[in-house]
Specification:
Myb/SANT-like domain-containing protein; two-stranded antiparallel ribbon; two-stranded antiparallel sheet; Myb/SANT-like_dom; mainly alpha; single chain
Amino acid sequence: MTTNNRNYRVWTDDEDDKLVEALLNMTNTGKFKSDNGFRTGYLPHLEACLKEALPESGILGKPHIESRIKTLKRDWAAFYDMLNTSGFGYDTVKHSVTASTDVWNSYIATHKHGGKWKNKTLPRYEDLCVIFGKDRAQGKKAKTVIEVEEEVNMVEEEHQRNEDFDEISHNVGTDSSLQVEETSSVRSKKRKRARQVDPLVRSFSDAVVLFADRLKETSAELSEDIKFELDIKKKTLMMPEELSKMTSLSQLEKFQAIEKIKDDQIRVMTFWSLGEEEREAWIRFLLSS
């Protein structure tokens, strides 16, 4: 369902469900998702998913999905902050926040937007925890809703900078190759009249060659580091699906296990190095420590 404003859309429950399912699948598989947010290309991917699930909806990546994700993350963050505040509880049946009247009054006095959650539910809260949970520091001071909105904007700006950097890198790489080839051919001719060459020009040409060589070495080193980081992130994102197979663990224990492992590379690697039967025993050992 849409309004006359192309940049605004009133989402139905079914559309919200399909979007959250697509986001959850993207998170669990590691596709277009990283610890800092979403990777370049995530909007076209989600648009295609919703077009397949809801062919008549007309939902676009920009501005519809992009705007809705901002709202979902902002609502989840507000909900999450309350549940991490003393006095609040969670109704798993109604998917709502619970608290005494005194706790509500005290919270609303310092969080003017918190009042709307007194009689409102967030049906996909658990799924949103999986989707957005890694974007929010655990065990630290909770961020305000305004800070979360600023964080979302910063991530989007970073995505744009990455796209710009890719384009600039391509241009720089092409220009550098041409400069190196031209420098190599011209240098042989200039050796015959070296005394007439401006030393500044010669120094600049040599600097270009050295820069190109160093760039190749640095790129190779970074490539290995990036591959390792991506492997760790991929293994981390695959954990919720693997933990879901451990039927003896409660949902809370699974969440606790993820929180204990996700930011520790050694624990991530240990988890995947164990056999399937050993993993569950190791998880219980980790939770008891």
